[in-house]
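Handout, page 2. Input:
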Amino acid sequence: MQLRTFIVEDNPTIRENLVGTLEELADIRCVGWADGERMARDWLLAHPHDWDLAVVDLFLRQGSGVGVLESLRTRTPRQRAVVLSNYATTDMRKRCAQLGADAVFDKSSEIDALVDDCAQLALHLRTLG
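Output:
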């Protein structure tokens, strides 16, 4: 079972590379993407059962990833939301955790950890059936 993943990233190059990397190494399937807060919120609210993982950047073309995280507070326990940002400071990690993020990864130094996290989640969901 592939991990149905929604990507919230405004940089097209980063988004394409991220999707390619995660599809190849972590057995995800990108079910959609957004480059702004409103677009992300609209898709996620319209498709509440069509995703397993949301990967959210904090700085977006419109709005912020913080607003996206706030909209995900009512997700099911099976769904995960992780932050992937260049702004993964200690304070921001704490703020994201308060908003319900399951993990925060730094774009410049923690891509391997994100891949590992996605692979583990995919494996866990497979065992659940």
